[in-house]
Every structure is written in structure tokens, then in C-alpha cells.
Amino acid sequence: MDCGAEREPASIWRCECGGLLDVVTTGVEITRAELDRRARSRKKPYNSGVWLYKELVHPLVRDDLIVTRPEGNTNIYTHAMVSEFAGIAKLSMKHEGENPTGSFKDRGMTVGISEARRLGHKAVGCASTGNTSASLASYAALCGMRSVVFIPSGEIAYGKLAQAMAFGARVLQIKGNFDDAMRIVQEACGRLGLYLLNSINPWRIEGQKSIAFELIQQLRWKPPDWVIVPAGNLGNTSAIGKALVELRDLALIEHLPRLAAVQAEGANPFYSMWKEGLERPPTLAKPETLASAIRIGNPVSWKRAMRAIKATNGVVEQVSDQEIMDAKAVIDSSGIGCEPASAASLAGAKRLRERGIISSDDSVVCILTGNILKDPGATVDYHTGKINGIEPRYKNAPVEVPPDIESVTKALR
Ligand code: F0G
């Protein structure tokens, strides 16, 4: 993306010039009718909500090399309480927490691991705030590859750490933050011959595009006015924007939705870049937010993400931890549920509505990126009022009662 050099797909994840790589697929022809036929047939590999779009995500992988669980096919939800909270009647949520390991990362990982296999790699690595490591560990185990994950020590939610350990990854707890882990994993992969599967790897982006492909197909090819996504390392913002532009260029949609990327206030370098018109995002040495998945101060995909925002006439927003936790509590109490970072999308929708950027009759889809069970600690601490500086406005704390019917009756009266 920096020097403009072109090359065939190979075992590299960064350009020789140090810049990011970008996959360009040429000569693809695909129709709505064919994609709808595949969706109905559910025949392998099209039973995966990623490989249904094979020509658009990775046309070069032989079907027998594809490692799939299968992912995608996630549901879209609406709920009056959520719409009311945001002040947007036509608001829906696509729940990427319904993927096999509980987050959207599986979409990029199935493509990344399949590419690793195509290239003949035996071991893969990533840095992670948790979800990528859970996904990598699972997909590597499925096809008998070794995996090494670099996670910031003490900073990732237990659900995610548990998955990485359980799926058999070698877990390295780096004494530092995610950005330290991201820096060191790149050096380590180069030196130790591991194939890097962070979203710096362009094939991860190609897989994650399928969130947008599937969303638009589920909406019978009628795009919403807005797609809103939580933003950390900025792979997902990049992928969704790239997908929307491709859909338009293939004449599969008539108009482009606007993309909104939402960051946490304490981890907002992309927001600062956007707001202040900077050449590049400032690096935050100590990013801070309760939403540990997006606690990132030096996002690697900022250039791709800015391209996506510009191409879709999009916006970047920031929200506080209080707003994130309130939005999460509303999504949770509606029966849908998500992890904290995911709720940044709804919190962002509310802010953009309040600022008049989204109007009350716009149709809006918030992407919920991760499952509620990823981070039970955050949920329990919120409802029991144990999070410093956060007012649990939607508190639902358990009550302790002695084991007799009188006490129970009293408690429920
Ligand atoms: N939501 C969740 C639940 C995430 O896990 C992440 C990123 C994001 C949103 C942000 O997406 O990085 O593409 O902008 N998690 C990465 C990880 C960093 O290591 O699991 P992004």
C-alpha cells in the first residue's frame, strides 16, 4: 500500500518496503443469484459464511486445503430496548460472537490458516488482546499446526486466555501491553519461521470482509445507511470498508453504506488522527479502557482503515467506558449479550445520533464482535458495582438469601 509494488501471493506478511500488503483480486465475476443459490444449497465449502464468497476472499486455495468449522452465518437481531437506547428505530445488530470460537476473528482465521497450509507452513503465531489468540489456537489445532500466541500479561479476559490454553497454543505472556506484543511477534516470526497471522497479514482482512458480504446478502442486497464497528487494531474497519467497495464495484449493491469506526476514549489514536486531520495516528504509550479487546495504542492497519473510512464517506467516533458499559448492559438485558468492546458500536451509534450525524430514520447495523461469555468478569463486576469510576446504571446484582421459603418470598416480593 505504500510503494505500489505488485507481486504474487507468497510467504510474506509485510512488503519489502516495510509497508502493508493489500490483496487485489482481478477478473472476478459473481452474481447475486449464484450467491443466493450457494446460500440455499449449503454445500461444502459454501456452508461457511466465509467460503460462500470464495472468489472474493481467496480464489487460490484448493477446497481440500480449507480449514473451516464452518464460520459465519451469524444472526441479525433487533430489540425495541436497544433501538430506544440509541434513538434509532431502524437499528439492528449482527452478532459475530456467534462464530465458532465466539468472535469475528474466525472469519479471517479460516482464510489465514488455509493460506498457511497452502504455503506449507507448520507453525503460526500472533499477538492478541485475546480473541485472535483463541481463534488462531483453535484453527491451528484443527489442522495439526503448532501455534504460538503473544498476549499482554494480565490484560486479556479469562474466557479468551482459557481458549488459547485449552486449544493447545504455546502461550507467551509478554510483560507489556498489546503494542509491545505486536512489535515482538513480528520480530519473532521473522527469526523463528512462524507464519504471522495478525490482521497485518492481508489474508485475514480478506476473510473478515465476509462480515459485510453476508450482512448485505442477508438484507436481500439492500444495504443499510450505516455500518458501525468497534475499532482497535483497525483490521475489521479495513475489511468491512474494502468489502463494501468491492460489492459496489461488482454491481452487487446500488449504494455504499457509510462506515463508522468507534474507539474507546482511552485508546483513541485513530479518532485523534481523524478529528485533527493528522498524517498518521499518534502512538499512545499507555492505552486504557475496560474494553480490553480494543486496548491498543498503535494500530497496525490504520492506513487501510483510513482508506475504508474515506471510500465510504465514513466517520470515526470515540466513546467513554461508561458509555460502553451502559450500552453493553442494554444489549445484555435485551437477551442478546456481547463482550465490552462489542458494545462500543452501540455506544457509538447513540453518540452519532445525538450529534445529528445519524438521523432518526437512518437504517443502522451495529457489528457485535464478541460473545458475552468471553469476559464474564467485566459483566459481574459491573452489576455488583465493583468497577472504579463506572456507575452501574443498569445494575442487576444477585441477592443472597437464606435457604428458607420465608426469606425467598420476602426477597421476591
Ligand atoms: N471487538 C473485539 C471483540 C475484538 O477482539 C477486537 C480486536 C475488536 C473489536 C477490534 O477489531 O482490531 O480489527 O479493529 N481484537 C484483536 C485481538 C486485537 O487480538 O483479538 P480490530
Textual characterization of the structure:
The protein is α/β, with parallel strands linked by helices and 413 residues long. It has a domain at 76-102 and 204-383: Rossmann fold (3-Layer(aba) Sandwich), CATH 3.40.50. The chain is built from 16 helices and ten strands. It has helices at 32-41, 54-57, 80-86, 105-118, 131-142, 158-166, 178-192, 202-208, 210-218, 235-249, 269-276, 302-311, 321-333, 340-354, 376-383, 405-412; strands spanning 76-77, 91-95, 123-127, 146-152, 170-174, 195-196, 226-230, 258-264, 315-319, 364-368. The strands form two sheets. A six-stranded mixed beta sheet has the order 1-2-10-7-8-9, with helices on both faces. Helix 6 links the parallel strand 4 and strand 5 (170-174). Helix 5 packs parallel to helix 6 (158-166). The longest helix has 15 residues, at 178-192. It is globular, with a radius of gyration of 21 Å. The protein starts with 31 loop residues before the first helix and ends with a helix. The mean pLDDT is 97. It binds ligand F0G. Residues 103, 105, 128-132, 199, 230-237, 293-294, 339, 341-342, 369-370 line the site of ligand F0G.
Keywords:
globular, 16 helices, binds ligand F0G, 4-stranded parallel β-sheet, alpha/beta, Rossmann fold, 12% strand
